[in-house]
Design brief:
five-stranded antiparallel β-sheet; about 35% strand; elongated; cell wall; Expansin_CBD_sf; Expansin; secreted
């Protein structure tokens, strides 16, 4: 009797482990979402610079060519600018690079819809328009468009958050880039050495603005990301800061 009971316990343990393994595998699979990917621009990626997120030279801003323009369904009016994704080519053996590892890209642009020709970027399609060099890491050039799976991932950064200042003495615009962890900024406040904290408004993408005159004052920033984390960047720009210059926040998320 005792031996039979022991056998039952062992069998139940094995079944439980199998169910847990199956559940874990299912959850891992569910972390990936179906989409499609194409490419734009040439092998040097000039056409992928700047774009709808407000970034400038992607090489100078550390993004390089590992970038993507998102379809409307993913772009979400620019609120996903800076997000990082892993993408892998699937279910197309004639088009996918065999054994290719997932690529990691940052959202830096928008792939606008074109309702006349049924564009792949039309809502509600989830689509990534990649730089050509990055596309070629997972798929063949002749494929043109491939089915992919993607998932959101953290954005690893080695240096501080950067603040690029633009505008004029009566209208300050700040582009926030090189943001770690989730990568997506949802709120920015600025503080001059002679003011309190001032709420900035999203102008477009990751460009934020204020009409407050802040020339001649050192600038600090308070930045919040989409995961609820907030960081204060004290005295990022000195009192003699200049427009069209980038200042290092020194720390990151």
């Amino acid at each position: 009797m005792a031996r039979s009971f022991t056998v039952v316990i062992v069998l139940l343990t094995i079944v439980c482990h199998q169910l847990m393994s199956t559940s874990a595998a299912t959850n891992a699979e569910n972390g990936w979402v179906d989409a499609h990917a194409t490419f734009y621009g040439g092998r040097k990626g000039e056409e992928t610079m700047q774009g709808a997120c407000g970034y400038g030279s992607l090489f100078e801003q550390s993004y390089g060519l590992a970038t993507a323009a998102l379809s409307t369904a993913l772009f979400n009016n620019g609120t996903t600018c800076g997000a990082c994704y892993e993408i892998i080519c699937v279910n197309a053996p004639q088009s996918c690079i065999k054994g290719a590892r997932p690529i990691r890209v940052t959202a830096t642009n928008w792939c606008p819809p074109n309702y006349r020709d049924g564009s792949w970027c039309n809502p509600p399609r989830k689509h990534f328009d990649l730089s050509l060099p990055i596309f070629l890491k997972i798929a063949k050039y002749k494929a043109g468009i491939v089915p992919v799976k993607y998932r959101r991932v953290m954005c690893p950064k080695k240096s501080g958050v950067k603040f690029q200042l633009a505008g004029n003495p009566y209208f300050l615009m700040v582009t926030v880039f090189n943001v770690g962890r989730v990568g997506v900024v949802v709120e920015v406040k600025v503080k001059g050495s002679k003011t309190g904290w001032i709420q900035m408004t999203r102008n477009w993408g990751q460009v934020w603005d204020t009409n407050t005159v802040l020339t001649g004052q050192s600038l600090s920033f308070l930045v919040a990301t989409s995961d609820g984390k907030r960081l204060k960047f004290n005295n990022v720009a000195p009192s003699n800061w200049q427009f069209d210059k980038t200042y290092d926040g020194k720390i990151n998320f």
